[in-house]
Amino acid sequence: MRKKQSKQNTILKATISNIIVAFVYVAIIVAIIIILFSSKISMAISLINRVSIDTSKKVLSEVKIDLEHNKLESYPEYGTRYANLIIEDLDVNLPLYYGDTLSILRYGVGQTAGGYFPGEGGSIICMAHNTRGFLRKLPEIQLGTKIKIEAVYGNYTYTVYDTKVVHQTETDAVPVQKEKEILMLYTCYPVNSIGHATHRFIAYASLD
């Protein structure tokens, strides 16, 4: 009986060891794939962005702004690109979409529907993934850095005056207000986190 139990224990230990070894091998292989093909993945994302830009030009041309009253006469359709967001110091040039769903964020920067548009004089709340090709370098941004939004109805330049790391539940860190035109751009933090990131890096910039 003891010999039988000892044999079963030996088999169990061997099985557990094999599972651990297999898991380690899989982790190593995944890490190698990520390292070897990260540039190709970024290139693929860029190609997808170009396709999205080309297919939405007709919709974008219909957006107009009433400069006298600082408001849009017509708004972009939800989910369409209406601008490019550019941070030259970080080598960032991304399409800006109206909307912030997960499907939209696959292609570029998303803008929260609850805020204002560039030129309307209020809060503009934008976000993008922290992966390569998106806002991975955002935490490196410096005070005084220029962020440009080149919209179909006009160009707007904002100067970064503050940055902050907050927990994802601190929604008051990106307030919607009408007193001053402020661009709030954020991404998940830290950028090298594995799995779900619980914090956000926010750059605050005011209209020049």
CATH class: Mainly Beta
Number of beta-strand segments: 10
The computed structural class is alpha+beta
- Distance between the first and last residues' Cα: 84 Å
Secondary-structure element series: HHEEEEHEEEEEE
CATH architecture: Beta Barrel
Question: What does the average pLDDT come to?
Answer: 81
Strand order of the largest sheet: 3-4-5-6-9-10-8-7
The rough form would be described as elongated
Low-confidence stretches: 38-61
Radius of gyration: 23 Å
Please bin the fraction of helical residues.
25-40%
User: Superfamily at the CATH H level?
Assistant: Sortase
The DSSP helix count reads: 3
Describe the SSE topology.
Layout: H1 2-54, H2 57-60, E1 64-66, E2 71-74, E3 81-87, E4 92-98, H3 102-105, E5 109-111, E6 123-127, E7 146-151, E8 154-167, E9 182-189, E10 199-207
Parallel strand pairs: 4-5, 6-9
Antiparallel strand pairs: 1-2, 3-4, 3-7, 5-6, 7-8, 8-10, 9-10
Structural overview:
- With 208 residues, this protein is α+β, with helices and mostly antiparallel strands.
- It has one domain (56-207): Sortase, Chain: A, CATH 2.40.260.
- The protein is built from three helices and ten strands.
What are the key terms here?
alpha+beta, 208 residues, 29% helix, Sortase, Chain: A, 8-stranded mixed β-barrel
In short:
This protein is an alpha+beta fold. The protein has helices spanning 2-54, 57-60, 102-105; strands at 64-66, 71-74, 81-87, 92-98, 109-111, 123-127, 146-151, 154-167, 182-189, 199-207.
